[in-house]
Amino acid sequence: MGASAHVGRIGGLAAALGIGVAIGLGCGVASADATGQTGSTESSSSSSGSGATSQTDSASGQAAGTATHDAGTSSTTTNAAKPVVTVTITTSHRGSHSTSTKPTTTGKPARASESSTGDKTSKDDKPSKNDKTPEDDKTSKDDEPSKDDEPATESPSTPTKAPPTSAVTTAPKTDAVDETPPATPAPAHDAVTAVADDAGTADSQTGGSPAKIPDSPISWTVAAAARKETLVPAATKTSAATASALAVPTPAVVDTTPPVAVIQTPPLAWLQQIPVIGPVFVTPIVAAIHMIPIVGDVIHPFIGYPVQPGAPGAPVPRDVMITSFDGTQIYVHFMPAAGLPAKGVAPTILEGPGLGMPGSTSLEVTPLDGMLTDGLGAVGVGTLRHAGYNVVTWDPRGEYRSGGTLELDSADYEAKDVSAIISWLATQPEAQLDSPGDPRMGMVGASYGGGIQWTTAATDHRVDAIVPSISWNTLNTSLYKSDAFKSGWGTLLTAALLLTGARPNPEIYPAAIRGLLTGSITEEQQALLADRGPAALLGSVTAPALIIQGTVDTLFSLQEAQDNAAALAPNVPVKVVYFCGGHGLCTNNLFDPTDGQVVTDATLNWLARYVKGQDVSTGPTFEWVDQHGQYFTSSTFPSAAGAPIVAAGGQSGVLPLVPLLFGSGPLFGVLPIGATAALNAVNLHIPTVATTTHVVGAPTLTLTYSGTGTSRHVYAQLVDDSTGNVLGNQATPIPVTLDGQTHTLSIPMEQVAQTLEPGQTLTLQIVASTANYENFGAFGALTVTGLQVSLPTITDAVAVGAAPALVST
Q: Within 13 Å and on the Cβ side, how many CA atoms surround 556?
């Protein structure tokens, strides 16, 4: 791909951040609240109970002769394979990995399973859903029951299922364990317990809307500054650790009543209807604008979709403003499957945008889609439409044309918005249904668009499959690991929200500023991160999950994916893919498009099996890529462990603790989101291996030290001596107590995926500063008297010569 691939990698990062030409051109207009709402507290009144939909299904700006679909009169095709289901949501969800109540479901057949879950599932099992494609659907809509006669939910007396027992196969999650009795224990790896050991209690207030969970590449850091308002009474003091005990979900029935939806008419759409000039000049310009990701999406509300050629009565794309559960207006885009005939139906995919990005409106595959998939791990709208799916996108609350305040993918806000979209989707004549009010549908999306999949799937079991890419398990471990604030991503995420005119919870910006200036956040803000999951909700997810995570993602590391997979119920089909991308740069693999191909193929195969119900293999349970771009597979996740590589040093060394100078990073000297080899470091050389060895997982560091100063952390990283690159660009914060006493601690480092050849060596570095965790008040001196590292290896890696074959549609 040459230079274009390099541009694609960096362009993918910019797109994820929502920073670029599109933002410069359109953020001012897009930030206007078209609904007439302010960014403050939402109205408590709700219009979602209304069964009437104030809409037409014809897209504004389409040719006058194009026939329209009347959602109010057309009946929808229902697949009898899936009975009516009573769906439940969770309304209380603090903490992480606490005991949860399994949502009640009735009548829904067990999902198909296969080898993607190792011994959890059987590869030979057939999908439980009958495949029903638009071409096969011969049912006349006149013979189907009217929507007015369709029940919204089952009787409340329907029997309930016993909650499943979660099986966590991974080792206990801990950040730092101080082995010296006098030393202060370091925070645990678990989200809700990742709070400073000496943390005090924090005041909690009830308020309009809880803080948001961080999104795709933009709200992570900002989320770290989450709001003081929690779901506990105002008079109660709640710490982040206490939040775990309050995290028992309370089930509530999802309201499947279609929300009020009003068709949106772009003010300039009429230009495409001008005879000769419209089709010859205007429509091609509109189509060309939509070929530019983000730019076309920002301008879209004013120009609409390009007029699509097609037979009379063929489905057309359209935009609606949906009234969510609390009265908030959500701007939604519906784009029918490519080539869908009149009265045809198709399964639907909901694709959530990254933080700071509007919902995508590109009907076709754009020239940048492949590069964005290669960098961010999520497929585009055009690819999904041509694979036979309707696609729905939207502007999340608090961003662009949607109203309300951004609540960080909260189960109490953003997830309920998506449930309202699903209920609206069930009324659309192009949507294939499993039962009345229950469309055949899956979800995809990266970062913020990945996080919303977890909270939605946990609270609304109409979701049939999810493909969360570069998402998170908890915000404490991703944004405030070992009580160290991620200042590099914090700066970028805060800037992205400001530049795009987002309307976040008012506590987010102050918290982000505090983290950037001091390197720490308050106890209330830590409790907010613990409250915002989705860790506590994962036991309620029933949708088969394809988890895609980036080996160079320095915002949401590989550990987040492993924790998500471990928290799912044993009967949920799971596959994990590690690709070279995410919130970061694949510095050692810039020109290889293989990652995008692997992600696309894995995604389409997963959706074909679990949404379309086709008998398609989804491949081994675990696929991962090393530093050379070589993909490997394993039949289990985590893979079978081999003998660790252990290195230890007894020589003492003194590390001057100063910010910035001669530390790790930034990447290319400018990007504060990754690690580089440092000059100011204590080094431990790791001996070479005798045979080819695969190092996959989290190394364990044991450190004996003493020192004085103001620093609260030093940082550990592994350097490939053959290239000078830091493995995965990852640096791990190591909490230290500089009281002049000797301390010993053991702590897991960030996960890596590396192939070591005979003769190849690595170096462990303990450094004073790193760009992604910069703290300008960190000074002192650290004396290292003992240093050991244990590198995990795997034994069942199988090299693959090519990406899996693309599924036919």
A: 34
